[in-house]
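For the sake of clarity, the format in which proteins appear in this thesis is described at this point. The fold follows as a row of integers, each naming the local backbone shape at the matching residue. One such record is shown here in full, so that the layout can be seen directly:
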Amino acid sequence: MTAIFRATVLALGVTSMVYSINASAAPAYSTDVARAMQAGDYGEARSLLRERAEAGDPEAQLNLGVLLAAGRGAAPNPREAARWYREAAEQGNAAAQNNLGQAYLQGQGVGMQPDTAARWFREAAQQGDAGAQYNLGTLYAQGRGVTRDMAQAVDWWRKAAEQGVIAAQYNMGAASADGVGTKQSDAAAVYWFANAAQAGNTRARQALDDLLPGLPTKQVAASNARVRGERNTSAEIIATVDAPQRLPVLGHTRDGWTMIYLADRGRLGWIADSLLSEQASAR
């Protein structure tokens, strides 16, 4: 595989850092706040959130920060937003930690300090915040606030990708295609690009066109062979295929399943080994 993806891996995060926006959590702690936000009365929502935030509620502090940063109910106030993010972040709120890291990375309401941004991203990432995991990985890829380390970048991108962050899935595909920070593997690249493409990433679809011809294939050995969404016989049937069709193969499991890519459906699937011919063929 040529290095056609490498520049994209390093550049993607510059314009695609991920925020943790949690204003939708308002109904969980305040019917009044939820009602005001649903009605578009952000001034009232901001007032109600401030009351709770000043009482020390970290979720209210986070959401007040979100409204202030976005300028909902008033002019944007990034300095005040960062203050409330910090209040919540210091109480361990992972979404607020991620947003505070973003503020320090972009210099929004605070001084631009990539090393401090990395510290807050790490705090949130270690708690499992997917946006922070992606952001921390991107800092490692760019060498901003941390020493550049593509293995660390890939490690954090993988965690975010497994939680469904599309940009992280794309970056994992690119890193796998080029062997940057991880072992080179066209099959792994197809896996991650397929996930990103299924979520609507057009560049991932283009990458799949380049990679799929290089994957080994297996021939279907039965009529109406069932392809499932998971590797068990009770999982959803997502397609049926017939002999002698050949399917791109990504890998196998010890319990008798093969992961394949359904080009006509643009998605991954699982098929029982017993429904395939014994030998794979390179394309």
Q: What stands out?
A: The beta strands are 217-219, 225-228, 237-241, 246-252, 257-262, 267-272. The first strand starts at residue 217 and ends at 219. The radius of gyration is 23 Å.
